[in-house]
Amino acid sequence: MTSTKQKVQTTKLLLKRAEEFHGHIGPFLVMGVRMGQIGLKELDLGKHKNSLNISLKVLQKVPYSCIVDGIQISTGCTVGNRKLQLKNSEEIEAHFNDLSNRRSVTIMPHPTVLAMLKEQVIEKKPSEEEVCNLAWNVASMPEKALLIVRNR
After folding, report:
1. Domains in the chain, please, with CATH?
2. Fewer CB within 10 A of the terminal residue: the chain, N end or C end?
3. CA 47 to CA 114: how far, in whole Å?
4. Alpha-carbon gap, residue 14 to 20, rounded angstroms
5. How far is Cα 8 from Cα 112, in angstroms, rounded to an integer?
6. In the predicted model, what is the mean pLDDT of residues 56-69?
7. Quick one: three-class SS letters along the chain?
8. Rounded Cα gap, residues 36 and 10, in angstroms
9. Which long-range contacts (CB under 8 A, 24 or more apart) does 7-14 make?
10. How far apart (Å, rounded) are the C-alpha atoms in residues 152 and 17?
11. What pLDDT is attached to residue 45?
12. Model-level pTM greater than 0.90?
């Protein structure tokens, strides 16, 4: 089992990769990374992700669409390899399906966190530094406060 220190280090590395890929760090990108990590953990896939398929509902508009890049980086499922299917939706919901053993999990942002991010990122028009601080707040939030996880 991985220690907390190792998990934190893994998350930091993923966030660095996500930032490089996406072009900047932000709370919706971080949320996507966290959703991907938790989906892999819930399905106990680890490095064996070949059987994973993800269906993501998300508003295909910045900043919501930043979640897509976070999920792609953290899972290896991409639009290009057709393991990530996108549906334009007002809801944010990721369905992780392990096709090898027919297990699945659905992950969505906690409504209070989503409301806070909408207010802080969309309505307030924050500075780059404030966006970065929000991103690191999302990165350090406890899983249960950040996301709702439903196993099927």
Report:
1. 4-151 (3.30.1330.130)
2. N
3. 29
4. 10
5. 24
6. 97
7. CCCHHHHHHHHHHHHHHHHHHHCCCCHHHHHHHHHHHHHHHHCCCCCCCCCEEEEEEECCCCCCCHHHHHHHHHHCCCCCCCCEEEEECCCCEEEEEECCCCEEEEEEECHHHHHHHHHHHHHCCCCHHHHHHHHHHHHHCCHHHHEEEEEC
8. 13
9. 10/37, 11/37, 11/139, 14/73, 14/74
10. 31
11. 84
12. yes
pLDDT of 106 > 50? The answer is yes
Which two tokens mark 56? 């993501």
pLDDT above 70 for 49: yes
| Polymer length of the chain | 152
pLDDT for the residue 142: 95
Give me 51's structure tokens.
């059987």
In the chain, the amino acid numbered 19 is E
- Phi-psi map region of 82: left, alpha, beta (phi>0 left; psi -120 to 50 alpha): left
- Which pair of tokens denotes residue 98? 């392990």
Helix axes 4-22, 128-140, angle to 10 degrees: 150
Q: Which residues are paired to 57 by β-bridges?
A: 87, 93
Beta bridge partners, 19, equal none
